[in-house]
């Protein structure tokens, strides 16, 4: 586990050679290159068949060239060393990105080739299956589209917004965000991190903020690698975030010099309480990103949960809901948004569970977008029960899209997303069937329970209203549990 700089020093090499030729040296350091999360590569390879621009291939793992005098073995995922009957390294279980196998598996699915060809024909007739939208900003890359806990196919919340070729903004930063960035950009991840100057943290739940530490440390390393001077990143979030950061700084390692906090509560409509320092930080941030406005509002989730609105001087407006139930303040802030990214944790029919957990269903999220007259709505933050594809509702339209990890969209190609639904349904048909069966069983159970209710019992509709009223007053005290 020796850093590469020490590993190749003459003193260290001399010490290693003292063990003799029979000793095997396993190297685990920053130069170890190995494939992680094979399922993510498989899903992305198959999605790439549907639309190569919106679903780009993930970066290949590049093994670094070793010096001629190097001796030792670089660690790899699932690499084994056998002690008996023969001493040897075994790589039969080491993961590899076999794209041909993944493509073959998808193409053999019943109806997939036909659905793919029909989709491509439709897009070609519409002029949508071209590379014309490449390079358009803002470019939105979904790094995590699941909720609560990371899974193989959906990591937890994080969205990268490339505002321009030189400036990027991160919307939430759940655990594993850097890993997702590295899988997406590969060897170019340092350059991407060097362009990151602002991070918005919507609220203090682990699936939205615990990846922040690693991003800050890796960003510093990326700046050094790119030969750029170190500058603190502007973090916009709840003031309580500083409690966590201070604890880490005091008990683990220095972190505070990496960032400046701009409290989200001071960016809500009508607030004039910004300190001179925060005013200067905000002005610098807006100028660097060429933004007309960066605004926040409180939403209906836990205490101090925020959504944000980003308005660019060129005219586009991006709104991010964070975690919330349907919220009037969000509707007001997001009026006429070019793009709304709204959480849709649960499927329709689970409204009571959504109220209990202070989240939104798919139709509720779409309804918020319609109320604010959003030009397009991207649904996000799905419960991990919808690991590959959520259930569709009747409210889905040409203005609504479903996000996937590593999906890349911009305002030029976002209208293409709803047209990809048919091949996606075929690709994930088995998962959809299972979800639909589960929904049918739940609805049947609910019908039986209603039939068994005594005449004097409280109607279900009134019960839902009571729950919603209670959640409105108590929701800020709830902890998220999906």
TrEMBL record:
E.C. number: 3.1.26.11
Gene Ontology terms, MF aspect: 3'-tRNA processing endoribonuclease activity; metal ion binding
UniProt subcellular location: Mitochondrion matrix, Mitochondrion nucleoid; Nucleus
TM region positions: none
One GO cellular component term noted in the UniProt record for this chain: nucleus
Region described as Disordered: 442-482
Primary location group: mitochondrion
Keyword Nuclease on entry: yes
Family: Belongs to the RNase Z family.
Oligomeric and partner information: Homodimer. Interacts with PTCD1.
Reactions catalysed: Endonucleolytic cleavage of RNA, removing extra 3' nucleotides from tRNA precursor, generating 3' termini of tRNAs. A 3'-hydroxy group is left at the tRNA terminus and a 5'-phosphoryl group is left at the trailer molecule
Cofactor(s) the protein requires to work: Zn(2+)
Domain of life: Eukaryota
Keywords associated with the record: Endonuclease, Hydrolase, Metal-binding, Mitochondrion, Mitochondrion nucleoid, Nuclease, Nucleus, Phosphoprotein, Transit peptide, tRNA processing, Zinc
Basic and acidic residues composition bias: residue spans: 442-451
Protein name: Zinc phosphodiesterase ELAC protein 2
Coiled-coil region: none
Keyword Metal-binding set for record: yes
Protein task: Zinc phosphodiesterase, which displays mitochondrial tRNA 3'-processing endonuclease activity. Involved in tRNA maturation, by removing a 3'-trailer from precursor tRNA. Associates with mitochondrial DNA complexes at the nucleoids to initiate RNA processing and ribosome assembly.
Pfam families: Anti-Pycsar_Apyc1
């Amino acid at each position: 586990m020796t850093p590469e700089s020490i590993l190749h020093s003459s003193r260290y090499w001399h010490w290693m050679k003292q063990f003799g030729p029979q000793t095997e040296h396993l190297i685990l350091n920053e130069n170890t290159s190995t494939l992680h999360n094979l399922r993510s590569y498989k899903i992305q390879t198959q999605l790439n068949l549907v639309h190569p621009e919106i679903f780009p291939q993930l970066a290949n793992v590049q093994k670094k060239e070793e010096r001629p005098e190097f001796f030792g073995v670089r660690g790899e995922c699932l690499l084994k060393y056998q002690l008996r009957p023969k001493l040897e390294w075994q790589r039969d279980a080491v993961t590899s990105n076999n794209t041909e196998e993944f493509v073959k598996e998808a193409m053999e699915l019943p109806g997939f080739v036909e659905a793919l060809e029909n989709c491509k024909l439709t897009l070609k007739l519409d002029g949508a299956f071209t590379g014309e939208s490449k390079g358009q900003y803002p470019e939105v890359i979904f790094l995590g589209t699941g909720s609560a806990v990371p899974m193989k196919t959906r990591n937890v919340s994080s969205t990268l917004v490339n505002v321009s070729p030189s400036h990027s903004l991160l919307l939430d930063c759940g655990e594993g965000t850097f890993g997702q960035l590295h899988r997406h950009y590969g060897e170019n991840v340092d350059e991407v991190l060097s362009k990151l100057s602002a991070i918005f943290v919507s609220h203090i739940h682990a699936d939205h903020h615990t990846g922040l530490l690693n991003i800050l440390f890796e960003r510093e390393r990326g700046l050094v690698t790119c030969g750029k001077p170190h500058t603190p990143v502007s973090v916009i979030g709840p003031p309580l975030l500083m409690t966590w950061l201070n604890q880490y700084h005091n008990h683990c390692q220095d972190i505070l010099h990496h960032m400046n906090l701009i409290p989200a509560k001071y960016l809500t409509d009508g607030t004039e309480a910004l300190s001179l320092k925060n005013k200067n930080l905000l002005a610098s941030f807006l100028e660097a990103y060429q933004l007309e406005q960066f605004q926040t509002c409180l939403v209906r989730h836990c205490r101090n949960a925020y959504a944000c609105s980003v308005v660019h001087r060129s005219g586009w407006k991006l709104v991010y809901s964070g975690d919330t139930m349907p919220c009037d303040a969000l509707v007001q802030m997001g009026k006429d948004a070019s793009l709304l990214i709204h959480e849709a944790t649960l499927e329709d029919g689970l409204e009571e569970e959504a109220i209990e957990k202070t989240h939104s269903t798919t139709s509720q999220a779409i309804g918020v977008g319609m109320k604010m007259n959003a030009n397009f709505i991207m649904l996000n933050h799905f419960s991990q029960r919808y690991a590959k594809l959520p259930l569709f509702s009747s409210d889905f339209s040409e203005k609504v899209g479903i996000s996937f990890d590593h999906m890349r969209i911009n305002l030029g190609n976002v209208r293409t997303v709803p047209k990809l639904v048919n091949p996606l349904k075929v690709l994930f048909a088995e998962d959809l069937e299972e979800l639909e069966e589960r929904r049918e069983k739940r609805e049947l159970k609910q019908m039986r329970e209603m039939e068994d209710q005594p005449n004097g019992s409280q109607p279900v509709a009134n019960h839902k209203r009571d729950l919603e009223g209670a959640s409105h007053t108590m929701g800020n005290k709830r902890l998220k549990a999906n």
